[in-house]
Amino acid sequence: QVQLVESGGGSVQAGGSLRLSCLVSGFTYRNYCLGWFRQVPGKEREGVAYIRSSGVLSDVADFVKGRFTISQDNAKRTVYLQLNSLNDEDSGVYYCAAEYVPCSTMAASLGGPVRSSLPYWGQGTQVTVSS
Q1: Which of 18, 31, 48, 117 is deepest in the core (most CB within 10 A)?
Q2: Is there a contact between 37 and 17 (Cβ–Cβ < 8 Å)?
Q3: CA distance 77 to 113
Q4: Cβ contacts of 65 within 8 Å, gap of 6 or more
Q5: Taking a C-beta distance cutoff of 8 angstroms, is the pair 23, 5 a contact?
Q6: pLDDT digits (tens), the chain, 131 positions
């Protein structure tokens, strides 16, 4: 049974940083992608970043490029999203999601609304940025 558990959200002032974590369990090792999505009130859930479990492929959306970084620690089965230079437009609920390779939905959803259903989601973690 696949489980994704996010942590690391919180409240931060504009310009600050947070690191989100997603603990993964239940996957067959090295044949899936993990991604981060966010949803703000009144908007569709959008793709922020994703990484292949093998580590050979990762990408972040243009609107966070240079500020957010996705990484993973396979030994800890954890994927991270480092959020730097936060502004109030980054506030929202951040979700971890997963799908098996070739990760077509994650790639198609990057920087925009989720294109189709993803099979696995975490419960989300709230990020609040105050100016």
Answers
A1: 48
A2: no
A3: 26
A4: none
A5: yes
A6: 899 999 999 999 999 999 999 999 988 657 899 999 999 888 999 999 999 988 788 999 999 999 999 999 989 999 999 999 999 999 999 999 999 988 899 999 999 999 888 999 999 999 999 98
